[in-house]
Amino acid sequence: KEKKLSKETFNIQDGKILSIVKEFYGRDGETVEKKTVKTFSYNGDLPTKSVYEGDGQAYTEEYEYESGKLTKKTVTYAGGGKPTVTTYSYEGDRLIREVLATPMKYSKEGREEEVTQYNEKDFVHSGERVTVNEKNYTKFKDGKEKYVNTLTSVFTIQGGNLIHRKTESTSHTEEGTYTYDDKKNPTFSNLKKILTPSYFMTSEGSRNNILTKEITSKAENKEESKQKYIYKYTYNDKGYPTTRKEYEVKGSVEEH
User: Fold this and answer.
1) Which residues contact 13 (CB under 8 A, 6 or more apart)?
2) In this structure, are residues 154 and 165 in contact, taking their beta carbons and an 8 Å threshold?
């Protein structure tokens, strides 16, 4: 049995995505409950800025490059507060390190302190496999790191498409398998690859468009859970999808 979750509409001109509108459906799979809009500005072929609105939040992303590769992404939220900053390091054309720094306020015993949450990823490339060693922690003003959490993921990429992912931490294992159509993925061709250097970690960053996604999760002392999603498209005459609909499959019977 299929349940429609969302629909995305892409405004593409001269191979560039100018906007992505995403509509989320309610429990009946028909009523639009919320809508998000992301618009992009360019300098030549490189996006310089994007503005996101909807779902109760609004933010601006600004992008900095060296030799055509993204080195810094700054996200500023409309509600105020310090921006989050992601930096990227490369070896040749390959991404080898990504660090996200998020300023936060930490309260303890009535005292408030400004701290920074870090998410660090180191990438090891080996043929069609990429191993990502990830570390999350909070850094305090005295330089101490607390709340440290580490995990390792292995991504298998075939023909430019992520086909398998396995993530393991001390208390949790998650595995994903993915299938694709043979048409061009518009977010891969001109946006995802530029603005998300670790694009290969997601199905949205694959060369073609995702058709099915199956996720199996197992947390410590809990039963294994499985989820399956399918995706349906309408395409333009150039082979790009103009809309994408996402469905969650419940049980073994599909209803259209």
Assistant:
1) none
2) yes
Residue type, position 87, single letter: T
Output b/e per residue, 203-218; b: 16+ Cβ within 10 A.
bbbbbbbbeebeeebe
* Distance of alpha carbon 41 from alpha carbon 97, whole angstroms: 26
The whole-angstrom separation of Cα 16 and Cα 26 is 31
Sorted by sequence, the CB contacts under 8 Å of residue 111 that are 6+ apart come out as none
Q: What pLDDT, in 10s, does the model give residues 4-59? A: 888 888 888 887 889 999 999 988 888 888 999 999 999 998 999 999 999 889 99
pLDDT tens digits, one per residue of 200-217: 898 988 999 999 999 999
Nearest to 244 by CA among 230, 256, 232: 232
